Amino acid sequence: MFKKLSKVLSLVTISVFLISCSKNHINRNHPDYAKISLEDMQDIFEPLPDQVLKLEDKSTVAQVKLGKKLYFEKALSLNNDISCNSCHMLDKFGVDNEATSPGHKGQRGDRNSPSVYNASLHIAQFWDGRAEDLKAQAKGPILNPIEMAIPNEEEAIKRIKRLSGYTDMFKAAFPKEKDPVTYDNLAHAIAQFEKNLLTPSRFDDYLKGNQDALSNDEKEGMRIFNEVGCTSCHNGVGVGGGLYQKIGLEIPYETEDKGRFNVTKNNDDMYFFKVPSLRNVAKTGPYFHDGTVKTLKEAISLMGTHQLGVELKKSEIDAISVFLESLTGKMPEIAKL
User: Fold this and answer.
1) Ranges of H-type helices in the chain
2) Quick one: the chain helix, strand, coil %, rounded to 5?
3) Where are the domains positioned within the chain?
């Protein structure tokens, strides 16, 4: 307990120091700056777990297999042409690299599709956090008239029951239930599959103690990333995804999207969004909630301006970009087609 409290206090101390750095652009010869070590990084970040689910249980394995099949199932869209993978492509690090994704009859929503990889470790799902977990998230797009456009849960289940093999897979996945083919179980299975979509990177090797896992340029970028204050929001196991923050915290950012306010109706949540995870960020553009920012370096520059209130130098933007490249991970075997 005392060890954990000590780590929390250490993290608070470092965060206060880093936020101060973001305002003052301290010299790297500053005595406090030299204290940012691997141990400090281990207080700010966490390596990905080896796995989220314990796969010793047969029914859990059956749920994961069912979830993977459902993830690619186009019958869960009204016109039989869209699946979860259509917008969250597993071979593209969980995104489709479009500003907004085409749904039913080509309709597009107003938000960028975030990556499904490592999403199980986030505080909530969707940019506005309206789904508390992956299971709740999985239920949404299927019934959304702009996305997959199935009119109701009953129609979704009717379609699944008509397809060969699914009833037996549901029985194996939920052996204690008399009628296991339900919408709730469908969403649960998809979530179980998604929980295994973890992408460990060289950055995780570094956090586990291998200081040679990152190049000198990547370490330099990591130091600058901390120095300017990025870690005040992008921290933890996801290098983000752990809290909500106002876009335009220091300098207003022009957007009509009111963010989390649309969910809570609380004025204090106006223009707040879930902080995106930066894992695989070099592969998951375009950026921001509306997908209007095309390049990673532009995103870094805008974040410096609007979130930190600083104009980052080109050399700083380049260095941070190099560091963020090291967060590109390995796709898990279960995701390979």
Assistant:
1) 2-24, 38-44, 58-71, 84-87, 134-143, 153-162, 166-173, 183-194, 202-207, 216-227, 261-264, 296-303, 314-325
2) 50, 5, 45
3) 2-49+199-325, 58-194
Q: What is the pLDDT of residues 101-127, one digit of tens each?
A: 999 999 999 999 999 999 999 999 999
The position carrying tokens 């109701």 is: 152
Amino acid at 114: P
Residue 47's contacts (CB-CB under 8 Å, 6 or more residues apart) are 200, 204, 207, 208, 237
pTM: 0.88
pLDDT digits (tens, 9 = 90+) for 24-83: 444 444 444 434 689 989 999 999 998 877 777 899 999 999 999 999 999 999 999 999
- The β-bridge partners of 293 are 287
The alpha carbons of the chain give a radius of gyration, in whole angstroms, of 21
**Class level of CATH domain 58-194:** mainly alpha
Fold type of domain 2-49+199-325:
Cytochrome Bc1 Complex; Chain D, domain 2 (1.10.760)
Q: What are phi and psi of 96, to 5 degrees?
A: -115, 5
| Cα(273)–Cα(260) distance, integer angstroms | 6
Q: Which residue is catalytic, options 46, 56, 147, 256?
A: 147
Verify whether residue 147 is a known catalytic residue: yes
CA 206, 212, 213, 218: dihedral to nearest 10 degrees?
90
The span from the CA of 328 to the CA of 218, in Å, is 12
